[in-house]
Give the backbone structure.
Amino acid sequence: MKRGKMACGIMWSTVDEDVRNMIDSRLGRYIDVIWINRQEEALSLLENGELKIFVSFPRNWVIEKARNLKLYQLLSAGADRLDLKLAREKGIIIASAKGANAFYVAELAVAHMLALVKRIVYFDNLMKNDVFPPYTREYQMGTLKNKTVIILGYGNIGREIARLLKPFGARVIGVRRRSGPRSDGVCDEIISIGELDQYIGHADIIVNALPLTKDTHGLLNKDFFSKLKKGSVYLVNVGRGPTIDEEALAEALDKNYIAGAGIDVWWLYPPEPGAPSRYGIHKNNKVIATPHRGGSSDLVGYDLAEYIIENIVNFLNGKPLKGVVDYDLGY
């Protein structure tokens, strides 16, 4: 088929028909939109230089095989599995979709917090086993009210978490990589990662929303867990699995250094052996485990479509893009 405009390939196997039609109608005015179902087809178009823009979840072969690619628009927030050095050498701009699904990830983070402090899974298991517990302190529920929540990674998702926590009366502290404004009208206080040690001992809940980089890999380690209030702190992870030392978390759970955890992101994914946790963390009774669904919802496809349409139109018009990945920082 002869094409008269710049070509954009989209490899999005789970896209709804309504979302696909929305993209076709709005982007089709500017570029040729080519929907790709098979890797072989994508490779052919990338290798012959026909595609200037490619949209998909992160795949290294896109960068490796592309001959004339200018923009690689991701359908996810993370770019940690991509060869960013090679992308820079080839002059490929990589734009993530960070922020597009921030509300949904934040919503799940709060759901994990509530499930943990309210002991919902625990009580549900009792009731399903015909145990109606007495009204004693042993069977009390907790609350988010007046609790100190520390959010590691105060970006798009972190801000949404802080906003959603406001009605619960929690004290929220956001942690950024660098120093900056101490408040944004949403978070009670914003600190740098270098100040964390001064605050960590006051935390009731730690929310990890960190991206995976060389600096954050294994950041939550044995030393980190040793600084928490022993046996009373909950951990929620909606960032990246390897930002937490897996063995250290397993030990923290087994030795009651933390009260429990809500985890949506993992160290390994099927079909990798041992997935999702080589230490069986997903099977621990103190852990609420979800299979990396934080960014998923019945509406997220529309939000992603709006995001990538805006970014591609801006790219075509020479305007700034959202979510451009820093080759050095990795996000």
The mean pLDDT is 95. The longest strand covers residues 51-56.
